[in-house]
Amino acid sequence: MCAVQLEVRNISKTYETGLFSRKARFVLENISFDVQEGRTFGIVGESGTGKTTLGKIIAAIEKPTAGEILFRGNTLAVMKRKEFPTFRRNVQMMFQDPEGSLNPKKTIRKSLDEVLRLIKMPKGTREYAIRDSLLTVGLSREILVRYPNQLSGGQNQRVALARILLLEPEVIILDEPTSALDISVQAQILNLLKDLQLKKALTYIFISHDMDVIRFMCHDIGIIKNSKLLATC
Amino acid sequence: MPDEATSSLNIRELKVTFDTPLGTVKAVDDVSFELNAGETLALVGETGCGKSVVAHSILKLLPANAKIKGQILFRNQNLLKLGEKDLAQIRGKEISLIMQNPALALNPVYSIGHQMTEPLMVHEGMRKAKAILKAKDLLKRLRFIGPDVATRAYPFEMSGGMKQRILIGISVILNPKIIIADEPTTGLDSRLRDMVLEELRLVKEMDRSSMIFISHDLKAAREISDRIAIMYAGEILEIGSTAEFFKEPFHPYSKKLLDSLPERGFNPIPGTSPSVIHPPEGCKFHPRCTSRKEICSKESPDFVRIKDRDIKCVLYS
Predict the structure, then answer these.
(1) Residues B7-35: what's their mean pLDDT?
(2) What pTM does this model have?
(3) How many Å lie between the alpha carbon of A87 and the closest alpha carbon of chain B?
(4) Range of the domain at B29
(5) What is the tally of structural domains in chain B?
(6) Which CATH number goes with the domain that contains B196?
C-alpha cells in the first residue's frame, strides 16, 4: 500500500450570485478523498461540475469555503508563511490551454528561466537545468528563442510541462492537459506523462471529461456530479 | 469519382499560401475533392494541416495576405472568381460556415434572438416579429429546451455546448445547400459532443444539405461522415468511404493516426508535423514514416485508386 500524499477533507466551495438578493451557489459540496504517492487519481465529470475549481483549491490557487487540504499530513490553512513556497513548489498545476499557460511576450527561454530565478538557482546552473528539462519532455534547444505563438499546441504543452519539472514537484495537477490537442499529439503527451511518472515517482491528479483518457492514465478515480463526489474507486 | 450532376461542390487543385515575415506558408498544397449531394465528407488531420484554410477558401474568408490558386466550382461557377457582392448572396444562404470557437463567433452584446434573426432580415427581408417566430421554431425543431428564454438570452448566459448549438441554428436558418462545420465538437465533453453531432445530423436531414465536417476528432468523423479525407501538411493523403477507411486504412499516416486512438492504446506517431514554410522534399510524411523507401524523399507520389479509395503513397503505385 502506498503512503497517502494528499488528503482532501470535506471541501466545499460556494459562489455568491445575484445583483440585489445575494444567493450562495454550491460549486463543490463536501468533497473528500485521498491521493496516494506515485499514483494517478482521476477526477471525472461533465463540463461545469467544479473539477477545475477543485484542482485549483488543491493547488492553493483558490481558497475553499469549508474543508481542508492536507499535504503529507500538514494542513494547508495553518501552514506557516515560510513553509508555503515549498508547498507551491511541490504541488504544481498544468492547465488545459497550452498557449494561454505561457506569457506571449516572453521567449521560451525567458519563461523557463523566470521559474529558476524565483527559486534562486545560481545563473551558472540555470542553463543546464533548462536544457535537461527540455530533453526530458522531448524538445530541442532551438525552441528556446521562439515565442509561444510560434509553437504548436503540443510543443507549448511540453514547454508548460518542462517549466513544471524545473521545480521538481512531487504532485502535478493535470487539468484536461490534452483536451485541446490532436489525437496523435494527445497520445504523445499521455505516454510522456506516464514515462515521467515512472522515472520521477510523480503523483498525478488528472482532471478530465474523457473516460478513455482516464482509463489509460489513472489508478484511482473520483466521479463528480452536481458538485458532489458520487464515488471513488 | 461522382459526376457533375451529383456533385454539389468541386474543388480542383486548390493551393493557398500566406506571405509572412518568416517566409511563405504553404497552407494548402494541391487539394482536390468533390462533395456529393446529400453526403457528409469529413476533413480530418492534425492541427495546422490546412483543414480550416480549405473551409475558409470556399467562402473566400481568408486574410489579405493569402494567395489562392485553383478552382472551387459551385453550380457551374468558380467561387474564387466571384466578387464580394455575388459572394454575399452565397455566404450563409447557399453555403454556411459553423465557426470553430462559439465563444468568439457570437457577438457578446447582442441577444441570441437578434443574432439568429439577422440572416433572415438581411437575406430574405423578413420582418423582425416573423423572423423571431422562425428562430423559435427552428430551436424547437432542434430540441432546444425553452426557445423563448434562449432567444432572449445573451451569449454569456450560455454554456459552451449551448453556444455551439445556437451557432448551428444560426448557420442553418436560411436552409443552406452546403454546411461547413469547422471543429464543432472541440473542447466539449462526451454528452455535449453527442448532442452537437445529433443536431448536425438533424439539420442536414431537415434541409437535405451536404456537409463538410472538419475535425481532428476521428471518433466524431467516424460517427457522422459518409466519406473521409485525411489531410497532412496541406495535402490530402487518402480519401474514400468512412466505413471502409476505419476497417482498413491504407496510407502509412492513416494507419499511425488510427493507432493513436484510445481503443488502440494511444500509440503516438513518432516525430512532429513538418514545417509548412520549409516542408520536406518528396512525400511530406516520409521523415516520420516507418515504411519509407528511398524514392519517398525525392518524389511526391501521385494518387492511386484502390477499392474506390484514392491514396497518395508510393507503396501502392
Answers:
(1) 91
(2) 0.82
(3) 31
(4) 7-94+176-316
(5) 1
(6) 3.40.50.300
